[in-house]
Design goal:
Length: about 120
């Protein structure tokens, strides 16, 4: 399984960040996998953002839920993240990953995002 993130490297404050993860080597609708977005701000640890399940159910980090939306495009085997009203503290490397039995077993290489005017 391979995952590849794509999206803008630079976003202005108050704008919406949109990222897409393209999955190859396996279907995002396969039971019972979940597909996740995680980020790592500079000098800090990993922060889980959201999951979308094989069934399409979604789960969010409560601290980001009000600004976050995760969705999937099964025809293209992709899932996406939207983060609204971004602030400089949203600057991070954003990763997509697969979740199998509560463990992140496959990761994308990560895409850096900077929030700056």
């Amino acid at each position: 399984v391979q995952l590849q993130e794509s999206g803008p490297g630079l976003v202005k404050p108050s704008q919406t960040l949109s990222l897409t993860c393209t999955v190859s080597g396996g279907s995002i609708t396969t039971n019972y996998y979940y597909w996740s977005w995680i980020r790592q701000p500079p000098g800090k640890g990993l922060e889980w953002i959201a999951y979308i399940a094989y069934s399409g159910s979604t789960y969010y980090n409560p601290s980001l839920k009000s600004r976050t939306s995760i969705s999937s495009d099964t025809s293209n085997n992709q899932f996406s993240l939207q983060l609204n009203s971004v602030i400089p503290e949203d600057t991070a490397v954003y990763y997509c990953a697969r979740v199998d039995e509560r463990a992140f077993d496959y990761w994308g290489q990560g895409t850096p995002v900077t929030v700056s005017s």
